Amino acid sequence: MDLIQLKTILADKPKYRFKQSKEAVFKNLAEDWLEVINFPPSLRLELNEKCSLRINGRIDESAKDSGVMKAIIILRDGLKIESVLMAHERGRFTVCVSSQVGCPMKCKFCATGASGFSRNLMTEEIVEQVLFFARYLKKNGGLRITNVVYMGMGEPFLNYDNVLASIRILNDKDGLNIGARKISISTCGIVDGIEKLAKENLQINLAISLHSPDTDLRSALMPINIKYSLADVLRAVDIYIQKTSRQVMFEYILLKGVNDTLEHAQKLAKLMRRPLYFVNLIIYNPIGREGMSPSIAKDVKKFKEILEKAGVPVSQRYSFGREIKAACGQLAKTI
After folding, report:
1. Catalytic-labelled residue, pool 82, 124, 125, 128
2. Which of 188, 269, 287, 295 could in theory staple to 260 by disulfide, Cβ–Cβ 3.0 to 4.6 A?
3. Percent residues over pLDDT 70 in the chain
């Protein structure tokens, strides 16, 4: 569903028609223009032909777990992406959206990067992932999406314009009306994107995939570190914080014997002792990569304690969907 195309089709109609169309799509969650009974039949037929509301997606029945489910969405060119819905306590529902088909970053711990890269997603293809689950929740209890995280397939800042356009639609009071502070973008450290985001008038959340306080190890785990060094990333984050006064989350995947030693924790603590820095520890979600396994519980506990004693704000993320390959780093292009 292309909002630009929709506006073009309605250009010669009364101005209120476009507002009505957005209400039908984002408030009433119509799946077919024939449902929009306040439109003339001829207009409904024209819209179905030129701007279909159909989303070619399905819930992966093999990928359902307590509180999480994965969807496979087939794009117009036949390519496929995966998106995830997570149910939290107190009626909070988060959609983890993809921004690219695959990913070119090739991080060693991520199945998406290993699957290769095809193309960026268009704005409407990002929005449709949220609409898909919004329609699902409406049918299953009249519930609604409360949060969106750009942590699925792809590097969001390599598709900056489409990602930001999709956020504005999701945040729009005439769109899905999801609060800006309920929307998060995770980047592996694209400095240009961090600097651009600092200039946007949006109170969304920024997360940085860090995964090592050591430059050489980070380069081995995340090749992007060769282009955008850890020092450059932190400088960009400091500028972002200075301009926005918003907290930044640093994601740290714990790999047994790789980046989870006491020395790593001490280096990380030193690096993270800055205003509005926050560390989120993530237990590695296995993707079948040789030499990589999750850190054991006692090492995670010690690692976290070192950060806490150093006064670094830190939390440990609960891993949704690990058993169904729907957790962080496990999404891949579906065959």
Report:
1. 82
2. 295
3. 93
CA within 13 Å, CB half, 255: 20
Query: Of 49-53, 268-272, 286-290, where does mean pLDDT reach its minimum?
Result: 286-290
Check if 305 is active-site: no
Tell me what pLDDT residue 326 has.
Answer: 43
Tell me, yes or no, if 49 is annotated catalytic. Answer: no
Cβ atoms within 10 A of the Cβ of 304, count?
18
32 alpha-carbon distance from chain centroid: 27
For 143-200, the pLDDT digits (tens) are: 999 999 999 999 999 999 999 999 999 999 999 999 999 999 999 999 999 999 999 9
Cα four-point dihedral sign 132, 137, 143, 148: negative
Q: Given 103, 107, 188, 328, which residue is catalytic? A: 328
For 53-109, the pLDDT digits (tens) are 999 999 987 766 668 899 999 999 999 999 999 998 788 999 999 999 999 999 999
Give the per-residue pLDDT at 286: 79
Say if residue 213's pLDDT is above 60: yes
Amino acid at 23: E
Which tokens in the block code for residue 55? Answer: 């989303």
